[in-house]
Amino acid sequence: MESDAEEEAAATPAAAATPGAGRLKGNPELTVDADMREMAKTAAWSVSSCKAGNGVAALRDDNLDTYWQSDGAQPHLVNIQFQKKVQLQLVVLYVDFKLDESYTPSKISIRAGDGFHNLKEIRTVELAKPVGWVHISLSGIDPRYAL
Question: For the domain with range 12-137, which CATH number is right: 2.60.120.260, 2.60.40.1120, 3.40.50.2300, 3.40.830.10?
Answer without folding.
Answer: 2.60.120.260
